[in-house]
Amino acid sequence: MNSKTEPATSANALLHLDQQMCFALYSANLALHKVYRKLLGQLDLTYPQYLVMLVLWQRDDVTVSDIGEKLFLDSATLTPLLKRLEVAGRLMRQRAKADERQVIITLTDAGKALREKAQSIPEAILCATECDITAVVTLKQQLESLRENLKDKS
User: Fold this and answer.
1) Which residues, listed in sequence order, are joined to residue 50 by a DSSP beta bridge?
2) One Pfam family name from the record (predicted)?
3) Alpha helices, H only, the chain
4) Which of 28, 26, 24, 20 is nearest to 128 (CA)?
5) 35-94: pLDDT as tens digits
6) Distance (Å, whole) CA 80 – CA 68
7) Which domains does the chain have, with CATH numbers?
8) pTM to 2 decimals?
């Protein structure tokens, strides 16, 4: 054994990178994003833009704050994303008539049409994981529970 390598049974093993939940999540997220990047490149979308589009495909005509709440993003992060999607012709931003402080986001015809092209992405991601649907659903539920448990701790 190398003198610089500690045995896995030592108390310091808790500080080994491969023992860290955060690193497992981080590295899995990196791998997942690489797959998404390849698939979304065909739609000329980034991953954050795809998330915005998912929100809008589920419910159109929503406020920026509604989107931010769904995606856990603040307005300062969302605004440039929305501007790029607007420039690309995928959505429109308009001030609300009832309250001009609010900005309403509406899909354009091009944004709506993009949904059809994106239909294959969830299945392609599932195939890339090489996991069965039950394992993926269970993992998703566990991650949502973890997020819920941690949200008030920061």
Assistant:
1) none
2) Staph_reg_Sar_Rot
3) 21-41, 47-58, 64-71, 75-87, 109-118, 121-129, 133-150
4) 28
5) 999 999 999 999 999 999 999 999 999 999 999 999 999 999 999 999 999 999 999 999
6) 13
7) 23-152 (1.10.10.10)
8) 0.87
